[in-house]
Amino acid sequence: MATIQGKNFIGYALSSEGEREFQAYAPATDSFLPEAFHCATIGEVNRTMELAKEAFDAYAQVPAAKRADFLIAITEEILALGDQLLERATLETGLPIARLQGERARTISQLTQFADLLREGSWIDASIDTAQPQRTPVPKPDIRKMLVPIGPVIVFGSSNFPFAYSVAGVDTGPALAAGNPVIVKAHAAHPGVSDLTAQAILSAARRTGMPEGTFSMLYDDGFEVGAALVKHLVSKAVGFTGSYKGGMALYRLAQEREEPIAVFAEMGSVNPIVVLPEYLKNNAENLGKILAASVSLGAGQFCTNPGLVFITKTEGLDLFQNSYKAEILNTPSATMLTAGICKNYNKLRGEALEQANVSVLAISDKHAEGDNQAEASIAMVSGKDFIANPKLHEEVFGPFSLLIVCENTEELYEAVSHLKGQLTATLIAEESEIEAYPKIVRQLARISGRFIMNGVPTGVEVCPSIHHGGPFPATADSKFTSVGRHSILRFVRPQSFQNWPDSLLPDELKNDNPLGILRLVDNAQTRDSI
Amino acid sequence: MATIQGKNFIGYALSSEGEREFQAYAPATDSFLPEAFHCATIGEVNRTMELAKEAFDAYAQVPAAKRADFLIAITEEILALGDQLLERATLETGLPIARLQGERARTISQLTQFADLLREGSWIDASIDTAQPQRTPVPKPDIRKMLVPIGPVIVFGSSNFPFAYSVAGVDTGPALAAGNPVIVKAHAAHPGVSDLTAQAILSAARRTGMPEGTFSMLYDDGFEVGAALVKHLVSKAVGFTGSYKGGMALYRLAQEREEPIAVFAEMGSVNPIVVLPEYLKNNAENLGKILAASVSLGAGQFCTNPGLVFITKTEGLDLFQNSYKAEILNTPSATMLTAGICKNYNKLRGEALEQANVSVLAISDKHAEGDNQAEASIAMVSGKDFIANPKLHEEVFGPFSLLIVCENTEELYEAVSHLKGQLTATLIAEESEIEAYPKIVRQLARISGRFIMNGVPTGVEVCPSIHHGGPFPATADSKFTSVGRHSILRFVRPQSFQNWPDSLLPDELKNDNPLGILRLVDNAQTRDSI
């Protein structure tokens, strides 16, 4: 059994200089767990960042294959924590063990995919234009380009994914893979899981000989440490998944620096679903089941939870509503991640239900055991009232969804025209009817990062074609994804090398292509040497 | 002969609602040209942006091959303006005709390269993960991804490149290629060139049937119109090349929006050159000639002008200094782009020369004819005094360079450690001595977007391997380049399509690959159909 340390991990050393401490909270039993976690001081922040600065010099030089070994060692160390990690996670988050097993597997898979990417090597986007010394009027120089790391990356874990979006998750994996030191601000909602995961990463770093300071992790149950990390001059980028308010606070801090840095903030989404009439007519009953399952999955605590469903007053509506209602009523309540999230869910749901002409379609009355329970809830409103009330366009984090019943597809188009940027948009339609609604299709495309047909937005496949990042305010920068191999592009920049002698070039750019990677050479893709 | 209109180009219409006018200035004769240019009003800005919003709906649907035709038509229309365009450009900028011919050729080449990119098509980065309906525990959905345009792009022309970085330059080309409408804020330093170029673009747009509002251009000799364009909700990105002050003002405006947008600002650079001792010993005389030519090229009005040269008190220094001095003394003065730029050059050069322990190595006394003349000037300072005085680290836009004479390579390393982000860094060294200075090499790599060996930073080759964008403050975002094919990545975002029926997918993602582009299909690069 590993021991939870409760201290800040500054490189390979433990540090607890501050006086502020906090304990982990167990939402299912509304109680605090015994261990104390020491909040970092500003002095510890500065020490961590100075170490990260030194570590960058060394870590950026570690060959890609060695960094791949490091990532695989992390997966081994995480798995070696065995049930202890899962049990701590279920205590701290209220999430069921089965879900956590799946999430751990996803986390291992993410890290393994980055190790594979490093070993294959072509992701570095090597490009070579050979010299033409005889060209007139001016000779063409030899120019080569590849992606290089940017420097220390600050990672903010997310409360709703204690593995996949936390200490060893979607930001840490690609940042380390790219050659950047990582400094995690542990999420106060699962400090014990964070502590164990940090130990796993540090054991892996030691075992594979990574420079000290390649990874550090600090605690805080407030905002001071996170703000200090973002403002520190050594920091070069920030990864964040959480609320709009939290994300924008960090974004503004980072922009106000003398040297602004990127904050890759994923800030939630209402993930609109649009149902077209012909589909409704043919699949009303089944649709109710599908939507109810998606809305209530994981107590609705997903950034891809479908918060708005747009539908028309056409044939099948009653049948759909009855099915949807029956499913929701029959959905057991579930423990939310923290007391704060549960309180906020009830508050925002209450506010939504108090809005003009909003009615309840269904609120689950099937209560499960435990504290901090959230009941799946569906509200209803007309298209007209939705359009008039921006409050209803906002996210209610939890198993809540608003059904917007529009008079016709024209009103539906107007309603979706008022939506801001989203991680996903979903069109539920018969294939034959889609071409009749080009404006609706275009609008859903315009506002979304991932456009789903006849599916649900929950469930994010980790694969090269996934894009998990939508137009603002879903994410701070819609060009980048936090899921999939392209997420590494957040933590690199291109660099050109002009007229370098072959022996001094990085291996990726040498004439004989010692790594055997796919390169663009004089405008043609090839693995050949020059 | 085309007629200079002097009015705002709002789509295909001319508009001159405002009362403010200005005239073009001819720097070589310190005089104003006859035509009046009407500054746009805020009402005209709003009208332009509403039109751009509508145009985006239509233009984003125009097939890539048609957009390529449009770009080629622009090159034809520009060339059709013939000598009129070159003559107007030399009048408005003071740049010699030969240089302008070269710059026009580069502009044509840039646009042609984007047309080629569109016709080949693989730049869209299509990626396909096919479904695995039998996968357990959950089926794998079909997910496909490609790059899509983002919306209207605001382009600020740059004074020093009236063609290549202005109305039809490095921002407009890729923004239009990607499928985004472009709104140019014409640079007040060359309004006539801008006017003629806008007419060429609009003729091309008409001829190839592009939607109205795909291109617009507004005038202003102040800041109001530019600020209003950046703040307008319809704007989705900004391209800018110019001063740090100007770039950061736009950047801050864009960040303060409720929906922040990217400002791809290239804000200048001092482009440090480091000379190592062995090279100095062997090539002292020739080095003076090479540097003098680079510093004074184009009256030093390049973002890649070498403003700082670091050297050591070692064998060859005297010989180098004598050669450098002789070359500079013999360099004729040249007309600067505007009276303001010339005045500013003299002011900043004066301030640099007044700093403690700064001496003059050489100021050209070879005066050419014409007004607004800049003399090539080299100042000298010790490494110690350079390190102590941040004022000396700043850009003096024009044919000025500071020679930093360091006691030894340790002091040289310390001096370059104080530098901020740069477009380029250059190492001038014998190949055999480089490995003795890993810290210097690492530092130059860390701060630069393009790292040159034994060359000069002036002269930016337009090719796939070029990266023209350095760490802040050289550019606002070091991930992106304004030169080369990858510059198109500034104006697109990835979008995923999940479970779409083949017939409704964009051609780039259809099973049978009708465009024949290179795609990543289930993790393998291929042009095959599925």
Structure description:
The first copy, chain A, has 14 helices and 23 strands. In chain A, α2 packs antiparallel against α5, α3 packs across α4 and α4 (97-120) packs parallel to α5. The model of chain A has no long low-confidence stretch (mean pLDDT 97). Helix content of chain A is 36%, strand content 20%. The first copy, chain A, folds into two domains: 9-267 and 480-490, Aldehyde Dehydrogenase, Chain A, domain 1 (3-Layer(aba) Sandwich); 273-453, Aldehyde Dehydrogenase, Chain A, domain 2. The radius of gyration of chain A is 25 Å and the shape is globular. With 530 residues, chain A is α/β, with parallel strands linked by helices. At the A-B interface, β5, β6, β20 and β21 of A face β5, β6, β20 and β21 of B.
Main features:
seven-stranded mixed β-sheet; 530 residues; Aldehyde Dehydrogenase, Chain A, domain 1; 14 helices; 2 domains; alpha/beta; Aldehyde Dehydrogenase, Chain A, domain 2; homodimer
Fold topology:
2 copies of one chain form a homodimer.
Chain A: E1 8-10, E2 13-15, E3 21-26, E4 31-38, H1 42-59, H2 64-80, H3 82-93, H4 97-120, E5 127-129, E6 143-149, E7 153-156, H5 172-178, E8 182-185, H6 191-207, E9 215-218, H7 224-231, E10 237-241, H8 244-256, E11 262-266, E12 273-275, H9 277-296, E13 308-312, H10 317-329, E14 334-335, H11 339-354, E15 359-363, E16 373-374, E17 377-382, H12 383-388, E18 400-406, H13 409-417, E19 422-428, H14 438-447, E20 448-453, E21 492-498, E22 519-521, E23 524-526
Parallel strand pairs in A: 5-22, 7-8, 7-10, 8-9, 10-11, 12-13, 12-19, 13-18, 17-18, 19-20
Antiparallel strand pairs in A: 1-2, 3-4, 5-6, 6-21, 14-16, 15-17, 22-23
Helix pairs in contact in A: 1-7, 2-4, 2-5, 2-6, 3-4, 3-6, 4-5, 9-10, 13-14
